[in-house]
Amino acid sequence: MQKVKKKILVKGCGVAGLTSAYMLAKAGAEITISAPADSPRGAASWYAGGMLAPYCERESAEARVETLGLQTMKWWSETLPDLVTHKGTLVVAPPRDSAELERFSRRTGGHRKIGADEIAKLEPDLAGRFSRGLFYETEAHIDPRKALLALKQKLKDMGATFVDIDADEAGFDFIVDATGFARIDQDHDMRGVRGEMLLVHNGDISFSRPIRLVHPRIPLYIVPRDNGIFMIGATMIESDDNRPITAHSMMDFLNAAYTIHPSFGEAEIVEIGVGVRPAYKDNFPRVKQEDNHIYVNGMHRHGYLISPEMARQVTEIVMG
C-alpha cells in the first residue's frame, strides 16, 4: 500500500518559510504555500545582506549562532551551489577606530590579522586605504533575492502549490506559520527590530567579498552584488516602525561607504529598503508547536544563517 503523503500548509514566503517548505518537500510532504502573489518580494529577508558569516556574527551573538551557522553554510552550499560565493569576509577600520577593530578580533574566532599589503591583494580597490584588517577566510555570502527566488522555483518544480494569503487551513495535517513580524500581535514574546539598507550602483570599483567597517555604534557593511550593485546595511533599531529611512541612517550609510572608498560619493542610489525583523528577547529564533500548528519565527538578523536549522526542527516535528 502506498504511504499517504502528509499535507502541509506553510504560511509565509520569506527565508524561514521557504527553507521549511523545501525541507518538508524533500522529506516527502505535500506542500501548499500561502503568501502574497508577489512573494518573496517585500519580505524582511528580501532586504537582507545574505552574509553567511558565523564567526563575524559571534561579535554580538551567542555561541550557538556560530555553531549552527557553520552547519548551515554547508546546507546552502549543497542546496544552491551556484549562488554561494566562498571568498570570506574582510573587516576593516580607519585608524581612529583601531581599538574597535581589536575588540572585534577578541570577540570572534576564525580569522587572521592582516596588513595593508594583504588587504590590497584581497581587494585591489582598497589598496592604500587601510593598514590593518581581519580576514575570515572560510565565510561566504549569497544574494538573498536570488536565493529566495531559486527556492521558490525548486518548490514549484517539486510540485508545491502556491496560493494567496488567508488560505483555508482545513484538511492539512500541519500548518507551519512563518509569517514573521505579522504575528507580533499574537506572539507577545516577540518584538520588532527595524532594519534599513541601500542598494547603490558604483561602476568604478569591484569587491569580491563583503566588507565590514568597524563602527563604534552600529555594524555597517557593504556586500557586492552583480553588475556594479552594492548593498549597504544595516541598522538595528529597537522599533517596529516601518516608515521610510531616516536622514540619520542615510548619513551613516553614506559616510561609511565613503570611508571604505571615496568613489561611493558618486554612486547612484538604486533602492532604499526598510524592513522590520521579528526578534525574541535573546535574539534567537524559536520553533513552537500548538497542536497541529507550528510557528517558526524570531530570526532577527540571522535569517539566512539560522533558518535551515529551524527548518530541520520543523521537519522533525512534522515527519515524526
Brief digest:
The protein contains 8 helices and 17 strands.
Please name the defining characteristics of this protein.
EC 1.4.3.3, eight-stranded mixed beta sheet, alpha/beta, D-amino-acid oxidase activity, 8 helices, 17 strands, Rossmann fold, 320 residues, elongated, 2 domains, D-Amino Acid Oxidase, Chain A, domain 2, flavoprotein
Q: How does this model look, in words?
A:
- The chain is of the alpha/beta class.
- The chain has two domains: 128 residues, NAD(P)-binding Rossmann-like Domain (Rossmann fold, 3-Layer(aba) Sandwich), CATH 3.40.50; 138 residues, D-Amino Acid Oxidase, Chain A, domain 2 (2-Layer Sandwich), CATH 3.30.9.10.
- 30% of the residues lie in helices and 26% in strands.
- It contains eight helices and 17 strands.
- The strands form three sheets. It has an eight-stranded mixed beta sheet with strand order 6-7-5-12-13-14-11-15, with helices on both faces.
- Helix 1 runs parallel beside helix 6, helix 1 crosses helix 8 and helix 3 crosses helix 8.
- The longest helix has 17 residues.
- The protein is elongated, with a radius of gyration of 20 Å.
- The chain starts with 6 loop residues before the first strand and ends with a helix.
- 48% of the residues are buried.
- The mean pLDDT is 94.
